[in-house]
Amino acid sequence: MINYARELDDAQLAACLAETAGRILLDVRGSGLIEGKALGKAGDETANQFLCHAIRHLRPDDGLLSEECKDTEERLSKERVWIIDPVDGTREYGEARTDWAVHVALAIDGVPTIGAVALPGCDLVLRSDDPQTLPEPAPTPRLVVSRTRPAKEAVEVAKRLGGELVEMGSAGAKAMAVVRGEAEIYLHSGGQFEWDSCAPAAVAAAHGLHCSRIDGSPLVYNQADTYMPDLLICRPELAKRILAEVADISA
């Protein structure tokens, strides 16, 4: 297995790691030994341990940033940095829903270059090296938003576009809903961190979607401050209109 993994290129490795971590998480949940918040914590810790050990073993010269590991300044001097989220959507994972994800990404010089997003509950891994043709958009734009705290900008943009709000769990699940043709827009302004969006952005960009901050500026990763205030992933034909509406709302 180790020799096999060493032969994988970066994109193949990202997909393999995301898929394997997803299987581990399903096994942890399927054991039935723990539930609720304890299940989320156990899943996070187990998947994180696997991912971090694998990356450090197979790509020892690269940097690493994980939601579940203490951050260090070492990664800031690296051109190549793996950015991972072992369980994106811990609540949904603990509730045995399908809208949670595993994120594995490689940022090169701050650009989300390679990514894999596993949706274990759907038995899917979406990857930057295997883009699929985007499905036809719905006549009425659908905006994926948080189940508990939809971004006010997203709510207002939906009104202005005559769109429909679709509640969903994790950031990865929301972004992949746009990739999969289940929505046209993912607009978030409530604050996230680099691990929440790096892999989804890499996958979405590879599929031809627009990815940026909500002011139109590029998404930049491997920063000293890992906080990322906002994000827009959408069909490219809608990007100009959405950015204009957000600017008008913010004026």
Sheet with most strands: 5 strands, mixed
CATH topology tier name of the largest domain: Fructose-1,6-Bisphosphatase, Chain A, domain 1
Average pLDDT, rounded to a whole number, is 94
Structural class of the helix and strand makeup? alpha/beta
Description:
The protein has two domains: 2-127, Fructose-1,6-Bisphosphatase, subunit A, domain 1 (Fructose-1,6-Bisphosphatase, Chain A, domain 1), CATH 3.30.540; 142-250, D-Maltodextrin-Binding Protein, domain 2 (3-Layer(aba) Sandwich), CATH 3.40.190.80. Helix content is 40%, strand content 24%. It has eight helices and twelve strands. The termini are far apart.
Structure, briefly:
This protein has 8 helices and 12 strands. It has 251 residues and is α/β, with parallel strands linked by helices.
Fold topology:
Layout: H1 2-6, H2 10-30, H3 36-58, E1 63-66, E2 80-88, H4 90-94, E3 101-108, E4 111-119, E5 124-127, E6 142-146, H5 152-161, E7 164-168, H6 171-179, E8 185-188, E9 192-193, H7 194-206, E10 210-212, E11 227-228, E12 231-234, H8 236-250
Parallel strand pairs: 1-2, 6-7, 6-8
Antiparallel strand pairs: 2-3, 3-4, 4-5, 8-12, 9-11, 10-12
Helix pairs in contact: 2-3, 5-8, 6-7
